[in-house]
């Protein structure tokens, strides 16, 4: 099917755009290519209209004169990810060079076969699709990282994630409930060479002891309560990552079997006759002090050592104040999309409420509060009333008695709040604090704050 740009009334999803002033050439190119994709043909003067009315990843330029080359340059500036194929005359190498310098993806020399043109267009569309997918994955990774946070403590934590992701060491994550331990475990998997393999989660606190054994290790066919083989979670994670969440709640009877698996990388199914080799990276997490539980004989000390070849501690949200507003904005964007809302941000009183709250439930509580606020908000912004934060958990000053420390803590707190209120605008932040911009930059560097 071939359309002409002036008649377009709605956006066409990824149609091929052919640009040519010669109507005969335009028609010939369209006939060759309409078998592999929908085609929109337009003369050069209608290109702006066509690009505004359609979504395209590939443009075929039917000529290579000065006007066409200039148009290539304009399209590349307007839509740099669009793949532009320029048809040039074989006897004129200069046109090909000019086209490539102007931003063309490739050139096609006349005379050419129909099959060559189709192949070039297919290749350009495939490249555009791959680049789009890479960007989508990068955007997902950026979003996941923003959910974890961007404060100096979290940046340091994420650096550790990058280090352990490329190793096979067992990793133990400590952190209060709601700090994002599962997200961090997922980040380790996603950044590892195993990212294309499975990521299997087992919550040791939510599965009864009599079921956890079979859940982890599986059951062989012929067992009295199993008519077929049941693959355990450890086997299911083969080639990928096993995440043992709330490992501190694992019953002692299971701990010995898990220890053996970690030491030998072998799995014995219940009622099985042979051990099965598995290739699994293990990440565990807990909000409990495992050393204390070991002292109470509730957790094996040797298992702690096996699980925690590397340990990572996620600081609670109250200790990384810089992340509060960043996370709140990230959640607002998410809920705007999933709930079809269009809230534009937070009012000053809601920012003050967010920054004054101690967040005993950490990131999970913040996410829930923003979710509720998006539901309750009547205006275009979230207010303090929408957040409904209780006074019970307002931060105590917690300031030390030493005057210098008191002054520095108050100074850091003031700069952090001013940055949040001004949404990172340096001039506005300086005005709020009543200092010059150079002084503000000095304070930001002094306290390692995010801009």
So what's the CATH class of the largest domain?
A: Alpha Beta
Cα gyration radius (Å): 30 Å
- Report the count of strand segments: 17
**Basic shape:** extended
Structural class: alpha/beta
Number of discrete helical segments: 19
Q: State the helical fraction.
A: 40-55%
CATH H level, superfamily name of the largest domain = P-loop containing nucleotide triphosphate hydrolases
Kindly report the average pLDDT value.
85
CATH architecture of the largest domain: 3-Layer(aba) Sandwich
Strand content: 5-15%
Q: Total domains, how many?
A: 4
Low-confidence stretches: 4-12
Domain Sigma-54 factor interaction: 147-375
Pfam families: AAA_lid_14 (PF25601), HTH_8 (PF02954), Response_reg (PF00072), Sigma54_activat (PF00158)
InterPro entries: AAA+_ATPase, AAA_lid_NorR, CheY-like_superfamily, Homeodomain-like_sf, HTH_Fis, P-loop_NTPase, Sig_transdc_resp-reg_receiver, Sigma_54_int
GO molecular function, one term: ATP binding
């Amino acid at each position: 099917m071939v359309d002409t740009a002036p008649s377009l009334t709605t956006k066409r999803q990824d149609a091929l755009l052919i640009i040519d002033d010669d109507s005969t050439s335009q028609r010939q190119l369209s006939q060759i290519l309409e078998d592999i994709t929908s085609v929109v043909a337009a003369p050069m003067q209608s290109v702006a209209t066509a690009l505004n009315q359609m979504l395209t990843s590939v443009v075929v330029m039917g000529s290579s004169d000065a006007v066409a080359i200039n148009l290539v340059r304009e399209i590349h500036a307007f839509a740099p990810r669009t793949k532009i194929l320029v048809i040039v005359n074989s006897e004129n190498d200069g046109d090909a060079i000019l086209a490539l310098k102007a931003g063309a993806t490739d050139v096609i020399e006349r005379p050419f076969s129909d099959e060559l043109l189709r192949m070039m267009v297919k290749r350009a569309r495939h490249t555009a699709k791959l680049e789009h997918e890479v960007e989508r994955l990068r955007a997902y990774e950026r979003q996941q990282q923003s959910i974890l946070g961007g404060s100096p403590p979290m940046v340091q934590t994420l650096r550790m994630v990058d280090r352990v992701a490329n190793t096979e060491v067992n990793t133990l994550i400590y952190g209060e409930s709601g700090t994002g331990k599962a997200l961090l475990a997922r980040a380790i998997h996603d950044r590892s060479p195993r990212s294309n393999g499975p990521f299997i989660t087992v919550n040791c606190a939510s599965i009864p002891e009599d079921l956890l054994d079979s859940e982890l290790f599986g059951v062989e066919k012929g067992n009295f309560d199993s008519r077929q083989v049941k693959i355990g979670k450890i086997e299911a994670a083969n080639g990928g990552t096993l995440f043992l969440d709330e490992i501190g709640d694992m019953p002692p009877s299971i701990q010995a079997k898990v220890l053996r698996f970690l030491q030998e990388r072998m799995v014995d199914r219940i009622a099985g006759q042979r051990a099965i080799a598995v290739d699994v990276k293990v990440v565990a997490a807990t909000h409990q002090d495992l050393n204390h539980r070991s002292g109470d004989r509730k957790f094996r000390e040797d298992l702690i050592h096996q699980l925690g070849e590397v340990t990572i501690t996620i600081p609670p949200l109250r200790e990384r104040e810089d992340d509060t507003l960043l996370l709140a904005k990230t959640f607002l964007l998410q809920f705007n999309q999933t709930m079809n809302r269009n809230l534009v941000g937070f009012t000053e009183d809601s920012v003050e409420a967010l920054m004054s709250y101690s967040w005993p439930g950490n990131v999970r509580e913040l996410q829930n509060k923003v979710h509720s606020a998006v539901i309750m908000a009547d205006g275009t912004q979230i207010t303090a009333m929408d957040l409904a934060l209780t006074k019970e958990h307002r931060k105590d000053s917690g300031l030390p008695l030493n005057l210098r420390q008191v002054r520095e803590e108050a100074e850091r707190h003031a700069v952090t709040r001013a940055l949040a209120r001004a949404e990172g605008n340096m001039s506005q932040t300086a005005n709020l604090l009543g200092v010059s911009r150079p002084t503000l930059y000095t304070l930001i560097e002094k306290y390692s704050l995010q801009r």
